[in-house]
Each structure stands twice: as structure tokens, then as C-alpha cells.
Design brief:
- The chain is mainly α.
- 99% of the residues lie in helices and 0% in strands.
- It has 1 helix and no strands.
- It has one helix at 2-154.
Length: 155
């Protein structure tokens, strides 16, 4: 058994430089490779997460601005609709006033025309009466003048 322990001791002594070398290699790799790599990966992750967070914040801000613009646009659109409605009502009132004025003028013209027509009718009636009267006198004169002549000529 002593021989085995002796061989194990020799193997341990022979493997000691390899173990020390591996340990030093781990320390060197940790300091020169793994720590910088881990730091860079962490920075990259922080930058990515930060960029995503900033992008979300900017997207939320843009969405809020878009809502604000949409609200302002809607308000402006409603203002235009209200203004159009006011202008439409004003135009309708003006149109109604113009129509009423035209109706009044037409009624006045109609009344004036009727009055003028009545006067003409009266004038024509008077002319007819005068003409009838004068015609009646002529007829009477002709009848009366011819009756004695006819009586004279027939007797």
C-alpha cells in the first residue's frame, strides 16, 4: 500500500504544475476575457433595454401628441361645421328676407296693376256709355228721321 501512496504522491507532484497552470489560466482568462466579455454583454443588454425603454417612451409621447393633434383637428373641424351652419342660417335668412321683399313688391305691383286695370275698365265703361249714348242718339235720329221720310215716301 505504501507503494500506491508513493505513486499517488508522485502523480500529485507531477500534476501540481498542471493544476497551477490551469488555475493561472483560469485567473488570466477571467481577468482578460470573461470579465470584459461579461461587462460588454451587460452594457449591451443595458443599452438594448434602455433603447427599448426610450423607444417605448418616445412611442407613448408620439401617441399622446397624435391624440392631441387629432383632438385639435376634431375641434377645428367642429368649428368649421359650426361656422358653416351659421353661414347657412344667415344665407337662409337673407334668402327669406329677399323672397319676402320680392313677394311684397309683387303684391304691390299686382295691386297697382289691378287698380290701373280698374281705372281702365271704368274709363272703357265711360267710353262705352258715351259711345252707346251717342250711338243711341244717332240711331234715334236715324229712326226718327227715316220714319217721317218713310211715312212721307210711303204716303
Amino acid at each position: 500500500m505504501g507503494d500506491i501512496l508513493n505513486q499517488l504522491g508522485q502523480l500529485f507532484l507531477q500534476s501540481t504544475p498542471t493544476v497551477i497552470f490551469i488555475f493561472l489560466l483560469l485567473v488570466v482568462l477571467d481577468r482578460l476575457f470573461f470579465r470584459p466579455l461579461t461587462r460588454i454583454l451587460k452594457e449591451r443588454e443595458d443599452a438594448t433595454v434602455g433603447a427599448l425603454a426610450r423607444a417605448r417612451e418616445q412611442a407613448a409621447a408620439a401617441e399622446e401628441k397624435a391624440r392631441g393633434y387629432e383632438a385639435a383637428f376634431q375641434s377645428a373641424r367642429q368649428g368649421v361645421y359650426r361656422q358653416r351652419e351659421v353661414e347657412r342660417k344667415t344665407a337662409l335668412r337673407d334668402r327669406e328676407a329677399t323672397l319676402e321683399q320680392a313677394r311684397q313688391q309683387a303684391e304691390l305691383s299686382r295691386q297697382e296693376g289691378q287698380a290701373a286695370l280698374r281705372q281702365e275698365v271704368e274709363a272703357v265703361k265711360q267710353d262705352l256709355r258715351a259711345a252707346c249714348h251717342s250711338l243711341a242718339q244717332e240711331i234715334t235720329e236715324v229712326v226718327l228721321d227715316t220714319a217721317p221720310s218713310a211715312a212721307k215716301g210711303g204716303a
